[in-house]
């Protein structure tokens, strides 16, 4: 009885806490210099045989933070000189709620365990590597009275009800402890180590989802730098272009970002000998196919949105896709927070060639929608199908139930990310061509430029040939491709504007295009007309035309061009214009013979304008030597004698005057006083004295009659007035 009493007391001391019979010492040396929570378990003098083990160990962190559903790496050291060391995961009671988190697993340290815990599998029948469910372990479980209730994990579940989980490991805090394999079962789901060499916590957070899909296009990964199927994401990005139009035959790259999916992805990768998954890794796309088919609540669709009438819709079929047509690449997260070494993004590199991964071959003009979704129905939570208390299957949901992401809460609904892309033809589009499709290249530093849907690192070249020279000319240039643009340096051998050469474009040795190249002065204005020269001083005759004003013009572009040559003299006092058409390289002197000069003699500035080209000069208007100006003065030194003689008009006018005067004389022959004129020409006296007079019957004096007759006879000769 005494011995039994001692045993009970000893057992009670062990159950009282994990530190019973354990002394705390300094941190042990580990790979991480920040190691904490390291303790060494030493047996006390009264410890029983099960506790006489020298156990030591440490964790690199006091708390490991990870995302529920993703793997997490636990770095630790552990040793037990008298047996194996074990890692207890979970099985603790939370202090804030008083509810147990639930026992999950016990892992045998060393050997197959590399420190990675897959939280998507934890507590299921797939478990963790080196789980004591699958590995021979020396375990002992006792109740609070010290009585052994189980010696293995398989017995623990039926004996205490602490074995299974109702659903995948929820976001919560879980215990980590390095133990010697002896535990006290304090209640359903609560398992406490009798002795712990080191303790830490595993804090799981809720998964997150990035609602944007990255889309870019790239060439065949086999052609990229390094080759090997494009296993380098950086090579794809470096040689690709961020656009949603993918060239037929090229690859469209779709990038997705999410957490909480990587534990399941790693599981399927391990099954196919592709795991463990790491950022920067390329794996077979069948890993993603198996994940999407098995994990409830995660979906990915790529489908055509514009099928033609009576034609089937084209969709991405990963299940039947050839690995050469689809590549799966993993990368670190950019927008979301993940674990230290867990990927956060995956990329699908999809070929758009015929007989590829689509149910119908993509054709130029086809448009596709991409949707990546994590599904949830409000009011529901994911639950394992097996509720027998045994570890459940990790990917078998209890039915009936809607599609549900395992880590969504009852308040979470479906979230999705959407994007689109289209398929386009492979083409070169040149920047400078004629209406007939002939290429225009500048004579100085010329280059053929344009846009293209062809992406690097395709090697293309172009040749320029002129067989009309005395010695045939030929040059070859490489095609430079960059971000949807191309440029070809054109060695034209010093050709002048207007010269025509043959142009050929090659993809390797395959001829892709053949055209005529026309050398021009300016590709933006290939038919430009220009003024070569104008006379500084052009002399024209007053009243003449402008045929003497010759302006030299030429075709400066290289193509036949039309323009208007305009002339402005003296600020608009004289304006005229001529419409011109000049063939390639043609020069001509143009004048204005139809324009009449109506300017006084002198010098006038003029301006000639043609297609924006402007020149200035001076127009000299000279007097016409064949013209004399006749003045209208009555006399002067410059007047001829003939001009001073009386004209017939003057005679007529004088005769009229005389005739008028004679009439006036007749009128004045008798005044009102009855006095008569003096016949001798003297005026009658003023005193009224009578003078002798000869009277005629007409009342006219003899003197007046004779004088009048003489004057009339002088101006009327031979019946004509002189």
Supply the key terms:
single chain; 722 residues; mainly beta; Immunoglobulin-like; eight-stranded mixed β-sheet; five-stranded mixed β-sheet; 41 strands; 12% helix; 35% strand; disordered N terminus; disordered C terminus
Give a short summary of the structure.
With 722 residues, the chain is mainly beta. α4 packs across α5 (286-294) and α7 (648-668) packs antiparallel against α8.
Structural overview:
This protein is mostly beta strands and 722 residues long. It folds into 5 domains: 10-205, no CATH class; 214-424, no CATH class; 432-520, Immunoglobulin-like (Sandwich); 529-622, Immunoglobulin-like (Sandwich); 647-662 and 694-722. The strands form 10 sheets. Strands 24-26-29-28-27-30-31-25 form an 8-stranded mixed β-sheet, with no helix packed on it. The chain has a 5-stranded mixed β-sheet with strand order 3-14-11-6-7, with no helix packed on it. Helix 4 (262-271) packs across helix 5. It is rod-shaped, with a radius of gyration of 58 Å.
